[in-house]
């Protein structure tokens, strides 16, 4: 059993049977660079230096996306960024582990209190982050408060607010990851999304920078070019306006590809796919199914 000491002041200690486990301090919103109306955070460890890159993605992470995370973290470090993520399973966990392995300062922001870290299976990972130089674990809740569904979006808002730019690695169309991306766009944070999942395709359609995913080298080059000037407008969309509905449908289809019969108007879809193929925007992957050419084969 652990409990927070009842000492007065902003600094507290999380204690166990053998003594202090970690020191916690309350950080006011203005000390985080946030408006005073925002709630502050409890922090174990240190607040990593600015600029910070938020890297987020699905909890049910697919292996090929998780394996790209160390590449993104490494490029961010070379560009002088520390990293932020939300401590969740999947992509977030991959971010935190990569930052530890690459010795990159980082911040994990949890929708929980220090006496009830969430997810509990990552408790050892959070302890390692808090003890790593220049890194910390921030808690949205105060000790004794219980997590609720709404706190996940609250946690995501801190992740975006404390970042200089945001990358979404993998996202479904209805997910916290796509919500974080849209929040970044709303707050005018530079946003990038990796090509290859429906949620990321939607974010790209809404203004995120598209990151090529044909190989780890392509990801590194795309992230590096973006971080050189994250606020620069993205390159012109190669899809003509009258084909962008098709581009969105291809994004939603994901890796399995899009068949003509999947479209509401197959005849019109055939004409659009024929034009897109002539412009080298799509490629057939077998069985009459098509993917965007900027997707990995």
Q: How do the strands of the widest beta sheet line up side by side?
A: 1-2-3-4-8-7-6-5-9-10-11
Low-pLDDT parts are 1-9, 14-21
Second CATH tier, the architecture of the largest domain:
3-Layer(aba) Sandwich
CATH class membership of the largest domain: Alpha Beta
CATH third-tier fold name of the largest domain: Rossmann fold
Give the DSSP E fraction (strand runs of 2 or more residues). 15-25%
**Mean pLDDT across all residues, rounded?**
85
| Helix segment tally | 10
Largest sheet: 11 strands, mixed
User: What's the multimeric state?
Assistant: single chain
What is the global morphology? elongated
Topology:
Layout (H helix, E strand, L loop, with lengths): L2 E2 L6 E6 L2 E9 L13 E5 L6 E5 L6 H4 L2 H10 L3 E4 L5 H12 L3 E5 L12 H9 L4 E4 L10 H12 L3 E4 L7 H11 L4 E4 L3 H8 L3 E3 L4 H13 L15 H10 L4 E2 L6 H13 L3 E5 L2 E4 L5
Characterization of the model:
The protein folds into 2 domains: 10-228, Rossmann fold, CATH 3.40.50.450; 241-292. Helix content is 34%, strand content 21%. The chain contains 10 helices and 14 strands. Strands 1-2-3-4-8-7-6-5-9-10-11 form an 11-stranded mixed β-sheet, with helices on both faces. The protein has a 3-stranded antiparallel β-sheet with strand order 12-14-13. Strand 13 and strand 14 (289-292) form a beta hairpin. Helix 2 crosses helix 3 (91-102), helix 5 crosses helix 6 and helix 7 (198-205) runs antiparallel to helix 9 (244-253). The longest helix is centred in the last third of the chain and has 13 residues, at 216-228. It is elongated. The model is unreliable at 1-9 and 14-21 (pLDDT under 50).
